[in-house]
Structure to design on (246 residues):
């Protein structure tokens, strides 16, 4: 838990980098000076607004992960202790009730084992084990899928920034109209500013989101291992008391 607390601190710092990155995007706008963040968004056009939406989504996901990707949520200590005691006593009904009252992934895994043991005169070790492994794999897949959205943000943001770059350069070339032998420099500069702002904005959001994804990927890997360990302890106690097939 302490390790994750440190990682959470790093995540907050990276979120700060994400916010400060918009300042860098404004500074990258060339000759233009902006008095407000709205000016930056207006200069970046629609693509910059989409990048901002992606950054807000990334911040929301990080906050959500900090609250949900915890051992106390995935395999609560209180539930595991009570489940181990019920399994050791051979109290199948009590264990089933305990699983129904808890909505954690660990409860879902244990419930899969209880379903195979409940009402059976003889419990097949391999069948019960397969049930636990199958449900455990499903719960692990849910955890991995949960953080996949942050990876999607990390991939999409730079691509949107690249799109803004192309649109900005097209705007620059379109602004190179010559009237009486004079090129319109402001029209060209506006397109270049848009290209630079969206490029920097997309890269900042993408790099930050990818860094945060790497942190949460390690956390999910740790949680999956902890879930397997906790479920195995309950499984061993359950099978020690359950009547077995010859």
């Amino acid at each position: 838990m302490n390790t994750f607390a440190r990682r959470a601190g790093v995540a907050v710092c990276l979120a700060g980098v994400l916010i400060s990155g918009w300042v860098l995007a404004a500074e990258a706008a060339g000759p233009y000076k902006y008095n407000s963040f709205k000016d930056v968004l207006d200069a970046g056009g629609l693509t910059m607004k989409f990048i901002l939406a992606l950054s807000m989504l990334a911040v929301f996901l990080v906050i959500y992960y900090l609250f949900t990707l915890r051992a106390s949520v995935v395999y609560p200590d209180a539930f595991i202790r009570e489940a181990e005691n019920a399994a050791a006593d051979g109290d199948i009904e009590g264990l089933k009730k305990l699983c129904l009252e808890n909505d954690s992934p660990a409860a879902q895994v244990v419930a899969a084992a209880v379903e195979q043991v409940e009402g059976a005169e003889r419990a097949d070790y391999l069948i019960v084990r397969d049930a636990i492994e199958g449900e455990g794999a499903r719960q692990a897949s849910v955890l991995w899928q949960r953080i996949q959205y942050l990876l999607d943000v990390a991939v999409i943001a730079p691509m949107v920034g690249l799109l803004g770059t192309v649109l900005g350069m097209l705007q620059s070339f379109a602004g190179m109209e010559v009237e009486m032998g004079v090129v319109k420099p402001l029209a060209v500069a506006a397109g270049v500013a848009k290209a630079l702002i969206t490029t920097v904005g997309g890269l900042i959001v993408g790099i930050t989101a990818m860094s945060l994804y790497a942190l949460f990927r390690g956390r999910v890997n740790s949680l999956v291992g902890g879930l397997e360990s906790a479920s195995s302890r309950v499984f061993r106690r359950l099978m020690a008391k359950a009547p077995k097939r010859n």
